[in-house]
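INFO  loader      accepted 1 record
INFO  loader      residues=175
INFO  predictor   begin
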Amino acid sequence: MKNTAAIFVLGAIALPLSLLRGQAPSAESRSVWDGVYTEEQAKRGEPLYRKECAACHGDMLTGGESAPPLTGGPFLANWNGLTMGDLFDRIRKTMPQSNPGRLTRQQDADILAFLLSVNKFPAGKTELYRQSEMLREIRFESAKPAPRNKREMIQWSQPQYPKISSRFPERRIVR
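INFO  predictor   done
INFO  writer      dumping tokens
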């Protein structure tokens, strides 16, 4: 009887803690700052954007009369804290406005990669996913997050000095 009561008490304590842990972002979670698309993918997305999106959102992605901007402060603020899956699904289900859902998942991913490149998020070595479920694991963060590990901290903390050119030799003061 005592063992049953002890197990019940431990379960009552452990359950809420495990639920809290499940809500916290995992150490392996990624953001748009982790290089989630490739430069090649963004290059494929640019002509698609020009053909399918620019008429409403503008050549410079600054928006139009009936469409919001896809770059800059308002765009970043609107999507900050959501996931790439949210943005991908919005594009996939509602764009182009004249015929929503007409583009393939690959085309939508390529256009999204182009949007990320224009907004100065870094490119990486792996193409952006085409599956909403996988894209939901990538956070859209408008500001670059603080370093997560020692290696990133070292890279952030080291000043970047310009290289000394051999064209201009050092001058020494002789007294």
